[in-house]
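> call design_seq(struct)
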């Protein structure tokens, strides 16, 4: 028991440490005024200077340039700016801005870099590129190289400006410099669903652990529905209020409290396997915090003013689908162990099934680990498969000890909750003191 608990906790702590080097999307504002083109992009200067390929990468720890990027984060802003200026020509060449078929020369006007902070965390840099719109041209077309990661492009200074979510390697297609290309309700709604889903799977590790904390309280469906409903209602409220700008609490406050919420639900799982009468209310309160976290992410992408409601609803539905996917995966993984505990399935069947699953997950973590998996999922295969292998091993342990009282709770739910609590505590300390 202690061995499996130690392995599971170590894996979750490894997952938490990997989250510290998150790669955020670049956000670009395109403005054309009096024939002058201005493209202001908030980006990851350290990654571009290092030359790392960000295609499909959610975490710089998953790249060979991880140590170099950390060293660049420790550079004073003026030193990093000097290095960025040296490669500005290469960056501009990759973007390939065109008017009709003609290339539009750009130049780096300025680069502003935040002061040195925690080198384990990304810092923002803003590069401003300028150029001249050719005489008679009324449309622009911008490329965004795959190696630069993801770009959220927003057309500014016009009515119904275009807003695009651009995966690496995409071109915008013709952008009318006079505006009028904003997406309709349906297109905006559909385009923001994957944005919300992506914030849960694979990038929302803190929200994933909170949802798993709700799941591991009990095997009964009704308490889970009460908890998920309270959480959904709460984060929907603050997501809307935050996106509207009516509530704005600094991330330095919200993020540690989100970590504390993870610790709370996990520790309460250890105290009881039934839902206390105050737990839904507490979860509602924590859901308000998570909604503010969602709102801050949505703020990075920008909401199109003409289709604010469509984007907000689409993003929220994407978040819900992501959360339900997490619960579904967890349920499918532990279902047989719960049946054995209830006396409805054979011990031998569970032992064989979970033994095979644990070995399969470990094997897949090596077989699938590579650029293709990283580009699709945003992180290395071990980040996903090793925790699944650990849970499968705990389920095998539960089935083997089914003769003991509450085997599933003792050998699966409680060890998983302890691991979740350890990660939440680590995040809390990191976000407050480190």
């Amino acid at each position: 028991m202690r061995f499996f608990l130690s392995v599971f906790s170590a894996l979750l702590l490894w997952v938490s440490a990997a989250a510290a080097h998150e790669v955020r999307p670049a956000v670009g504002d395109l403005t054309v005024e009096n024939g002058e083109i201005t493209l202001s992009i908030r980006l990851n200067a350290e990654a571009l200077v290092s030359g790392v390929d960000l295609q499909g990468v959610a975490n710089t720890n998953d790249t060979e340039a991880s140590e170099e990027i950390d060293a660049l984060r420790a550079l004073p802003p003026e030193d990093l700016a000097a290095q960025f200026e040296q490669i500005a020509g290469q960056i501009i060449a990759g973007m390939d801005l065109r008017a009709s078929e003609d290339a539009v020369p750009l130049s780096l006007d300025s680069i502003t870099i935040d002061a040195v902070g925690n080198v384990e965390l990304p810092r923002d840099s803003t590069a401003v590129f300028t150029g001249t719109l050719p005489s008679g041209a009324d449309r622009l077309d911008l490329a965004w190289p795959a190696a630069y990661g993801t770009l959220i492009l927003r057309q500014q200074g016009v009515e119904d400006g275009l807003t695009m979510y651009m995966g690496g390697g995409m071109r915008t297609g013709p952008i009318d410099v006079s505006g009028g290309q904003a997406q309709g309700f349906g297109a905006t709604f559909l385009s923001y669903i994957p944005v919300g889903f992506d914030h849960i799977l694979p990038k929302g590790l803190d929200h994933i652990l909170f949802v798993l904390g709700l799941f591991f309280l009990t095997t009964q469906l009704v308490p889970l529905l009460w908890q998920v409903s309270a959480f959904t209602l709460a984060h929907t409220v603050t997501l809307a209020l935050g996106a509207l700008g009516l509530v704005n609490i600094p991330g330095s406050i919200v993020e540690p409290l989100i970590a504390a919420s993870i610790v709370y639900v996990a520790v309460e799982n250890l105290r009881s396997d039934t839902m206390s009468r105050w737990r839904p209310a507490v979860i509602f309160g924590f859901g308000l915090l998570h909604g503010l976290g969602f709102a801050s992410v949505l703020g990075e992408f920008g909401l199109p003013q003409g289709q604010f409601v469509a984007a907000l609803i689409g993003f929220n539905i994407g978040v819900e689908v992501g959360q339900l996917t997490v619960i579904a995966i967890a349920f499918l993984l532990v279902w047989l162990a719960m049946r054995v505990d209830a006396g409805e399935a054979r011990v031998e069947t569970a032992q064989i099934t979970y033994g095979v699953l644990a070995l399969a997950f470990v094997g897949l973590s090596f077989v699938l680990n590579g650029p293709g998996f990283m580009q699709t999922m945003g992180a290395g295969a071990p980040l996903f498969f090793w925790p699944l292998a650990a849970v499968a091993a705990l389920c095998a342990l539960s089935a083997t000890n089914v003769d003991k009282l509450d085997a599933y709770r003792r050998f699966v739910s409680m060890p998983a909750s302890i691991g979740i609590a350890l990660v939440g505590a680590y995040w809390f300390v990191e976000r407050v003191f480190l």
